[in-house]
Amino acid sequence: MTELKPKEQQALAAIKALMIDMDGVLWHGDKSIVDLPKLFQQLSDHGYDYILATNNSTKSPKAYQEKLASFGVQVASDKILTSSLVAASYLRQRFASGPVFYIGEKGLAEALTEADFSLLSAEEVLAGAESPLVVVGLDRYITYSKLSAASMLIAKGAQFIATNNDNSIPVELGLLPGAGAIIAAISTTTGKNPLVLGKPAASMFQEGLKRLQQEASACLMIGDRLETDVAGAKRLGILTALVLSGVSQAASFENPSSSSSKPDLVMQDIAEVVARLIQSRA
Question: Global pTM?
Fold first, then answer.
């Protein structure tokens, strides 16, 4: 590990809690990137609190608990924050309840249902059912009917909400289309852009700070995307660590055009970040 500057060392020593992205940071698909049981044991041993904050809207907190358990890690459900939960909370606060058309998977459907919204199918919308809300997340089973239903409602004035706008998702074999690819198709059709509620939007980081009960200055965001994890956290004054195990690579932040999203720290993986944190307290 390279030596940190005194200012960086001081900033790390003040950290009490972590916001940790999952895809590209903890794992690629079903393959862990580092020794996860060891990593979470280190966090516990050294008193670091954490929130696992992901833009991936496909899974529920319970599903993420099960995935983490498959790697030998037990995590409480309130430690898992997804863009689906943030979107459902936003809608509940502003609309209370009602019909929603969504594009997404089980994680988004469960979050909306638990927030007391009723879900319309593409067939119902194409048959004339109305909804003032369209919520779009990653859907690996996307169909032309779903795209058509969403586009029709948005063209009629429905509010266009996106759980996130990630263009890709990292898996073992490389990068696959993300929610942003689906959103682009709808935006191209309607000429409308969505309100994005996942990272880099402030709402997700604010919810993370609320759950952690910490000020921004006491938190560190660990992620693999400059445009979401780093950019969003920096706007709220949260220290950022970019890991090179996922989407963004070193060349992307060396480009002057991305200086507004330049991370505070750049490390190979989350294990190195945690080692640095522990070292900063020595």
Answer: 0.88
